[in-house]
Amino acid sequence: MIDKQLTEIDKEIKSYQKNENIILVAVSKFQSIEKIQEAYNAGHRHFGENYVQELAEKYEQLPKDIQWHCIGALQTNKVKYIAPFVYLIHTLDRKSLCDEIQKQGKKHNRVINCLIQVAISPEESKIGGCTFEEFENLYEYTLQQPNIKVLGLMGMASFTQNEDIIRGEFRSLADLYRKHPEFSILSMGMSSDYIIALQEGSNMIRIGTKIFGERI
Ligand SMILES: *Cc1c(COP(=O)(O)O)cnc(C)c1O
């Protein structure tokens, strides 16, 4: 079941893949260790979690070659729990978080890869993400942090059936992404909207429900 879903999405991804790799992050929040292990056994290695405690527990219990993505709103005081192992933080959106990631990265002697989350929808602006106006200033700030490497951008579209709205929001992020040729990752698209995201140039999609079924 899970491997079938992964294969199906991988096939869809291939049709949008040009010269760059598109990465599928399997979003495993609230999913059991057994289900994650099943996806792992099918060959999948990129997994995403929203909550730090859950992420740290699953890291402990699962194979160590999993690449863990932190995709949820991140509290400054929780960075220390994921700093030793996290593969990519998608939700860097403010200077205070930047300071803490820098501090923890230095402590663990590693450069922590991050995406800057930009609020592209009204809902997202309530839960996280910097504004388009704040972006350049925040990005400049990250460039002064030796233990942070910003690889690109992340955004979440509105929860709506209106495809034009979703497309417009993804396009606004893709436009910003293209202004920065040094970036390599554009993380956008979830179960309900990843096809639109891929059409707009996403190269990292974050899919939960469509792979694992409804969350319990
Ligand atoms: C939960 C979540 C996803 C996956 O959502 P699905 O609709 O289950 O695919 C992707 N991105 C973020 C930031 C999430 O919180």
Q: How does this model look, in words?
A:
- The protein is α/β, with parallel strands linked by helices and 216 residues long.
- It has a single domain (2-14, 21-212), classed as TIM Barrel, CATH 3.20.20.10.
- Helices cover 44% and strands 18% of the residues.
- The protein has 10 helices and 8 strands.
- It has an 8-stranded parallel beta sheet.
- Bound molecules: pyridoxal-5'-phosphate (PLP).
- Pyridoxal-5'-phosphate binds next to β8 and α10.
Helix-residue proportion: 40-55%
What is the N-to-C succession of helices and strands?
HEHEHEHEHEHHEHEHEH
Largest sheet strand order: 7-6-5-4-3-2-1-8
Q: Strand tally, please?
A: 8
Small molecules bound = pyridoxal-5'-phosphate
Q: What is the fold-level CATH name, i.e. the topology? A: TIM Barrel
Q: What fraction of the residues are assigned to beta strands by DSSP?
A: 15-25%
Mean pLDDT across residues: 97
Provide the CATH superfamily: Alanine racemase
CATH class descriptor name: Alpha Beta
* Number of contiguous helices: 10
Topology summary:
Blueprint: H1 2-16, E1 23-27, H2 33-41, E2 46-49, H3 52-61, E3 67-70, H4 79-82, E4 88-92, H5 95-107, E5 112-117, H6 122-127, H7 132-143, E6 148-154, H8 163-178, E7 185-187, H9 194-199, E8 204-207, H10 209-212
Parallel strand pairs: 1-2, 1-8, 2-3, 3-4, 4-5, 5-6, 6-7
The structure holds pyridoxal-5'-phosphate (PLP).
Pyridoxal-5'-phosphate binds next to β8 and α10.
